[in-house]
């Protein structure tokens, strides 16, 4: 069986990728949290239960519980959610508390200045609902805003750092909408823990400290951001106690006034002034964009796999469609017999993934702006025909988008956008059996590097294709006013005989899709428990080159996969999978590559 070995900071440094820009993007997140945990006991303040959960993760065993479970990226955030559940709150209530604390203790990944997608299973009605809280392009956006005067794409960080990349945040309204639909706790109380931590201070984690140190130049470009992460000129260090009074004040206003206090008034004005005043790279966000922001309910996208339905977030995310395509193509292949050590299994998974990514690049974008053949892309007949392409013995020499059935036609060119590090995934099951899967982000590590009212602003607009056209043919994921950038986030709930059996998701840019598909295969086909499934070494193929996780036994497949014809890169693969399996008991798993835990009772 593939096993996980030592995690080394050096092992996670970026190695060459197909696309040059991706190198720079990954560097911001390519740090192993475990690198520094040995010297600083940053979790000294967490409860005994959280300590036990950290130990369980370290030992590779799932957390077991009867009533409820939370798996998320930081013990302090998980504890805030656990308190809500203990007091009788729902999974939606707990999410609000978890997100409020994550925005403080893991500010590089998600927060009020970002966006999120949420999948909800309602135990009473048996229904799945998906909510789109994705950031939105300002009304003043222009399809060529990430191009130079010659129409060539800007370099990634020239576009990211500053105001131009900032979309209208969606997370505050999504928190409120989830609470309005499914919450029963008192809204203001859900912010108590985060306000207290912001005022009294929290302990800076190794991961946060390493990421700050690794991004020092960009983080010091804007005074407010520099002042927070580099107080008196020196980077915050692991073990430091950090307060954020501005964040506490913002949370207080939202606790008292709801999301309206964020989207209008002083906070909205501060966001707009920060974006428009960003020196060297001003953006176009207006108070009207904020005031108009809406969370959108979208139809869940489900794909059949074995005896299960794998359900998640449809466009503007490509998550559920691409995960669903990969699994749908693999459905007719016996991965269980091949097993996780078999190069043949990874040939099938890798090429199914490449085929799915070819469709993703061609067709997937915000359906409010571009026709997308959503049903056609996961139709069993279509996937069966695509699966026939996998019947050979070697890596496919090339892959191209297929021709799914359209309800109406549109000719589109392949996209050129690339996405990368930060992001967080929250999985929660409450005592009533409601399940919540939410992936939340500010896009790049530390987003646009702009800070307003105590939180970082996203750079989500760089998830659009920088090119608007290719040879005169429009690209589906081009920027347009009011449009939402295509995402890879794949918050997922696997349904088995009408009830949830697995709640899962991950950060990781477009590799999210591979991480989530792999963990589902590991759990369903290879009978791994959730902790094994999230910890297992990664092998990811999106565009042809096979990425194998450095420092793990996945690297042992380098020679066999090369022999099958793949270009192979051994590199750090920094997922952050958080999963809950629902059976006779609840079992939680937290990714050993990040600082989170699964906690339950
Ligand atoms: O929406 C997306 O797909 C990206 N903005 C997510 C970025 C991400 O996962 C970075 N991960 N480490």
From TrEMBL:
Cleaved by autocatalysis into a large and a small subunit. One of its GO terms (molecular function) is glutathione hydrolase activity. The keyword Hydrolase applies. Keywords: Acyltransferase, Glutathione biosynthesis, Hydrolase, Transferase, Zymogen. L-glutamate binds at residues 134, 463, 487-488, 509. InterPro entries: GGT_bact, GGT_lsub, GGT_peptidase, GGT_ssub_C, Ntn_hydrolases_N. It catalyses: an S-substituted glutathione + H2O = an S-substituted L-cysteinylglycine + L-glutamate; an N-terminal (5-L-glutamyl)-[peptide] + an alpha-amino acid = 5-L-glutamyl amino acid + an N-terminal L-alpha-aminoacyl-[peptide]; glutathione + H2O = L-cysteinylglycine + L-glutamate. Pathway: Sulfur metabolism; glutathione metabolism. Its EC number is 2.3.2.2, 3.4.19.13. GO terms for biological process: glutathione biosynthetic process; glutathione catabolic process. The active site is at 423 (nucleophile). It comes from the Bacteria. Belongs to the gamma-glutamyltransferase family. This enzyme consists of two polypeptide chains, which are synthesized in precursor form from a single polypeptide. This is Glutathione hydrolase proenzyme. The lineage of its organism: Bacteria, Pseudomonadati, Pseudomonadota, Alphaproteobacteria, Rhodobacterales.
